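REVIEWER CHECKLIST
Item 1: Sequence provided? yes
Item 2: Single chain? yes
Item 3: Sequence as submitted:
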Amino acid sequence: MVFSSITFLFYFLPLVFLCYFIVPKKGKNIVLLIASFIFYFYGEPKYIVVLIISCLLNYYFGKLVAKSEGNIAKRYLIINLIINFGMLFYFKYFNFLIDNINNLFNSEFALIKIIMPIGISFFTFQATSYVIDIYRKRVAPAKNIWTFATYLSLFPQLIAGPIVRYETVADELDNRVLSVNLFSDGVKRFIVGLSKKVLLANVLGEAVSIISGLTAKTVLSHWMSAIFATFQLYFDFSGYSDMAIGLGLMFGFRFLENFNYPLIARSITDFWRRWHISLSSWLKDYIYIPLGGSKCGSFKQYRNIIIVWLVTGLWHGANWNFILWGLYFGILLIIEKKFLLKFLDKHRVFSHLYTFILVVISFVIFNHEDLSSILVFLKSMMGLNGLAFINMETIYYLRSYLVVFIIAIIAITPILGKVVNKLRSNERLSKLLRIAEPVLLLLLLVITVSFIVDESFNPFLYFRF
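Item 4: Structure as written out by the authors:
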């Protein structure tokens, strides 16, 4: 079940709200837990067992670690890590390993028919951070299995993040306060996210599909395809995060932000402070810093960066293009730290252009599984494959999607938010805005739902992770 579906919007969510708001406070977590399991079961009937096992194992290992000290607690933590990442490895990476062994040694080991449970990377990282934080004495274990299971399976962020740490919502799991204002803020955030997903990501995705299928491709059509695909991925994932944060607010949870206008970043370092913030901070706190971070000499710091970015690439998928994608960013980050950051800080226009081009190239690597096709595509972007720069067909599709492209450019910046804040600071205009905002949001919702009813192209790209 996806958020941008009629089933979710008009059947599942209203029924969950009805049950959630009529039950007493003590029953609200149970409603959320049941709803979350139904939500997951709808998309993954067989693999809900994996989610249940993860809930049980991590809850009890959290208890064991909390009750133990020293080496015994460390031993329980290590066993927990082996189980968590063993499950993740089996479902996500086992066949990748076998396939590469077969290619390397000309062996013929049979691949196992494995379907990866949706969202396993997200809930594995959440569960792992819970037990590690108990070991570090940063959080106390959940009071009961129902509270922990509610945290781990919470449907707004279950299958595509953001990665929510237990310490962020520990108090709200037991003591959250519901209010009309909070619910209203959640509705606004959800509608904005839904609109980004349906009106921008889906339309841009269709454009990428059409442009990629042109018979007479050009240099410009390759750049259009690459930029549109980058925008599609951003609006898809950030739109989902907006909806997850909005749903959290409606139920009384305050999830941390996951995106901060990353496509206007001024360096790759800055980009990764703004893109998928929950993953970046998780990798920093649980891998980079434990390895020594930046406080262990230049060589080890660069080694740590490469390790973290190998993990980042592998986290996104079991394929060599994701490993290459991670190494690409790791190498760029090292180059920036060593040579470029001071220069980029002094040259604003160049720094934005430099970062945007490198990010677009990165998502060419990200979106093409075959390494040879990555090379061909990049050479075509650089005009090295003998293609014309432009033709009439390219001009036609550039004109066709020009309005969407301009809207997308505006939407990747904080311009609209700044305009709204300026209007709110004016007493007369703020009164007008209070009347106009609900009307505009309702209109946006109607248009978005109309698109959902009418279209068949409605994937969530990050469900595969």
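Item 5: Key structural point noted by reviewer: The chain has a mean pLDDT of 92.
Item 6: Recommendation: ____
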